[in-house]
Amino acid sequence: MISRVLSGLIAIVFLAVGSVAMAGEPISIAFKPGKEPYVLPKSPFTDADYIPTNALGIEPEICYQAFKAVGKEIKPVYMNYNRMPTELVAKNIDAATQLVPDLEDVTYVGGYVHLHDHVIYSLSNDQEIKTIADVAGLRVLAFQQASKFLGPEYNAAIATAKSYREIDDQEKQVQIFLAGRTDVVVLDIGIFKHWSKVYGEPDKEYGYASILGDRFFFSVGFTDPDLAAEFEKGLNIIKENGTYDKIYAKYLD
Question: Alpha-carbon distance 211 to 130, whole Å?
Fold first, then answer.
């Protein structure tokens, strides 16, 4: 009888130790790679791409600082968006970023990272964009599926453009604009500032027309509601103490 009690106590101790070890493990968070300046690492990855204290981009740094604020560590994992829901539901990862909030048994935390699409144009061409209708007669280059995402007013305006194209590669989109091969680009202001800086033109005069709606916030999905609550708490802390804004400024200003 005593031996059975002792065995049970030992089993409880081992379970407790095991649970503490699990609780102390870094939180695995999936990011889409090569999405500068939001996620800087891209294939082929190096060991440095998995160290969260490195400058890995806006998204990993927000996650790192939010969890650091509540005493936890993260482990970055890189994969495309199509894999994230499957890996998350299978609990192969603890969290996935920029998900559409439509999975069952997943808890979402909003207000995580934001994009703000602008119409960007060169001031050297004596043109000014005050409304989306002002793209009439101009060459317009937009991000992929912009016509589906930005709504009927946008679609009516681009119908009057001299030319209109959408491409997936936003680095190339900025390159084409800087080379003068399009009059305006439609993309997130942060992405534009990042690539214009990379190509040595951060101080050139551009017009930034914020006429495509407000900032669009993305969510992080968690299979553990308690972990989601901790992340939300940490996210609120870094927003209140200014760390969140400093992360954006670090990569964009």
Answer: 8
Closest to 197 in 3D by CA, of 181, 178, 179: 178
Q: Which of these, 33, 75, 35, lies nearest to 53 by C-alpha position?
A: 75
pLDDT digits (tens, 9 = 90+) for 142-183: 998 899 889 899 999 999 999 999 998 889 999 999 999 999
Tell the CATH superfamily of the 28-114+216-252 domain: Periplasmic binding protein-like II (3.40.190.10)
Q: Pairing mode, if any, of strands 139-143 and 163-167?
A: parallel
Radius of gyration of the chain (CA): 23
Q: CATH 3.40.190.10 residue ranges in the chain?
A: 28-114+216-252, 117-209
CB contact set of 130 (below 8 Å; sequence gap of 6+): 209, 211
CB neighbourhood size of 139 (10 A): 18
Fold of 117-209: D-Maltodextrin-Binding Protein; domain 2 (3.40.190)
What pTM did the predictor assign? 0.78
Cα–Cα distance measured from residue 142 to residue 138, given in angstroms and rounded to the nearest whole number? 13
Question: Which amino acid is present at 28?
Answer: S
pLDDT digits (tens, 9 = 90+) for 66-95: 999 999 999 999 998 889 999 999 999 999
How confident is the model at residue 23, as a pLDDT? 56
- List Cβ neighbours of 106 (8 Å cut-off, separation of 6 or more): 88, 89, 99, 221, 222, 223
